[in-house]
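2024-03-11 09:14:02 DEBUG pipeline.ingest accepted 1 chain
2024-03-11 09:14:02 DEBUG pipeline.ingest length=442
2024-03-11 09:14:03 DEBUG pipeline.predict start
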Amino acid sequence: MSIFGGYDIRGIYPNDLDANKAKKLGQAFALQCKNACVGFDNRSSSQELKNAFLDGFVKSGGRATIVGLVPTPVLYYSIVKFSSGGGVMVTASHLPAEYNGFKFLKKTMPLATNELKKLEEDFNSDASTSGEGGVEEKSVEVHYVNHVLSKTRLGRELKIVLDSGNGVCGPLAKRLFEELGCEVIGLFIEPDSRFPNHVPDPHKTETLKWLCDSVKKEKADLGIALDADGDRCLFVDDLGKPVPGDYSNVLFALSELRKNPSASVVGELRSSMVFKKEVEANGGKYFEAKAGRVAVREEMVKQNAVFSGEITGHVCFKENYGFDDGIFAAAKMLELLSNQSKKLSELISVIPKYSSSPEYRVNVKNKQEIITSIKQSFTGKGLKFSELDGVKLVTPNSWGLVRVSNTEEKITLRFEGETEKEMLEVKKLFSDELSKLGVALP
């Protein structure tokens, strides 16, 4: 299995990704970036992989600023704080404990497709340069906390439940929210590389069970769910119900549009129709990007957007350098709620609701061939569809999407209609095609 995904490096340790490969990644990255901040998460293999990466990077002339055991957003911020040429985060984000990986940035942007491709080519060819770089250590957590505090103003105290899934970001996030003036009840706050309570992926609704129960038990204003490295965030409302990313994104976008009338907002092609409609109804300009944090970030820069959001909880604010930062997003939700009298459930209730399927993720061995077959079949039937990312069929009142996963050997699908009947009709178009190819939807 290749460790190179659609926008980062991931694999099972040590079968797919080990110290030798980490060293080669260091050599290869030094060909693109000579000055980088480096952080790592709390996975059991992260320090070993970080050290091996540094061995290759420094011996190839790279200069590294080690910011230590930190959440990914803190690593991001260190690039700005220390005027670094790029950044490297050792993490597998929300994946189970046996995985690890690397996220790379040049300046404040994740590697573009061509840059990641070059990294892969240099990695495979053992390309390197000679030269002796250097390593220094700097602390950045206090600077990051002060940055978030300077961008956030709460109107009243809130009671919140925070679930960080035993990832690296729990202690920092809890302390930050307390400094904002919140009462914070922690769930699975202490970092534990085994992730013993649940997979640290808030986009999987089953991982929110404990958070939902705790919000109801504690009569909290909301629940905050962070993934393992803190670059994603999703919410539970005051009734203990998960808030789909589509709807929290609407709240964020409308808040930004009140401050920046007629500004641009970026969503992704998996987003509900409600995101686009609400942005445009409130005077904003809506732009659709491919799924995935790299494509969304690139579109955000292209359109000079004030906000972008994915259904998975990757949320980016222009005022936060466009970083996908779950901790910052949570702070902005606290600000939003505390400066008006309505509860989160009440704010969500007035947003129009459509009939949406979950995101189906189906294991396949030939994911690209499946996409090609569906394109050919739809073309033969005279159906019009977008090829921005996979196949997206849009009707006046519904849409359906199938695309390849950027990180796994899977295809992903989602369907939506203004009514359940319309959603099921577009879903049937896709399921019929998949059944011909021997693939069944869950």
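2024-03-11 09:14:41 DEBUG pipeline.report The chain has a mean pLDDT of 97.
2024-03-11 09:14:41 DEBUG pipeline.predict end
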